[in-house]
């Protein structure tokens, strides 16, 4: 990676999480069915993943299907499930070649056994890869995650502390997101990584997900680089940590 490849200043976030919103509107603008937007969204994800590796991002977490998205019309839900199944077949060899470790994060309940097997196989195959960890949040909700973590702790009788709870969450294998991007113009979290975004920097863009490209990603990275993360401290303390 050379200097001209980099956004102008500052550090690259180790973990970028993205709410990939706006597929449906992107399609409607083109008089296409919503599912065409989801397909174009897959392209945007490929692009984004490649660029994340290029920029030195270590973890990319994307919101692909929420616990609440089951409420959509059945044909749209079925199309999204098919897209995931197809992506596991088409994309995993490429991901593996690029050194990407894939994790599909979310409840397995409600998913076809064949899809659950495909997920397990893809995760197993890419488990030792180290270039970047890609978390695809599918059938995922931040509240679901906190509840399943609390249940697991209760079952084992473990003490409930911030640390034990964090370690029981479905994203415990990665550090908290440094930067959360939401495309599609809405300024809300929609039950994404609730616990882990306590101190994430947020970046909202009107860009619809299928149109998200390297330039827009770099704008988000540049905005992040300009932020001062204080974690409760004063600006002066952060600027001169020894003081
Ligand atoms: C995000 O795009 C993808 C999913 C939630 C599965 P949408 O499908 O929500 O697109 P809009 O928000 O309707 O444009
Ligand atoms: C959030 O988008 C979920 C995903 C991107 C998978 P939604 O489109 O479901 O969010 P709301 O309903 O507008 O809040
Ligand atoms: Mg949406």
From TrEMBL:
Domain of life, per lineage: Bacteria
Enzyme category, top tier: transferase
Protein name in the entry: Isoprenyl transferase
Residues binding substrate: 22-26, 34, 38, 66-68, 70, 72, 182, 188-190
Active site location: 21, 69
GO molecular function: ditrans,polycis-undecaprenyl-diphosphate synthase [(2E,6E)-farnesyl-diphosphate specific] activity; magnesium ion binding
Keyword Cytoplasm: no
A Gene Ontology biological process term: polyprenol biosynthetic process
Gene Ontology cellular-component annotations: cytosol
Subunit structure: Homodimer.
Keyword DNA-binding: no
The protein's Enzyme Commission number: 2.5.1.-
Keyword annotations from UniProtKB, A to Z: Magnesium, Metal-binding, Transferase
Functional summary from the UniProt entry: Catalyzes the condensation of isopentenyl diphosphate (IPP) with allylic pyrophosphates generating different type of terpenoids.
Cofactor(s) of this protein: Mg(2+)
SUPFAM superfamilies (alphabetical): Undecaprenyl diphosphate synthase
Pfam families referenced in this protein's UniProt entry, alphabetically: Prenyltransf
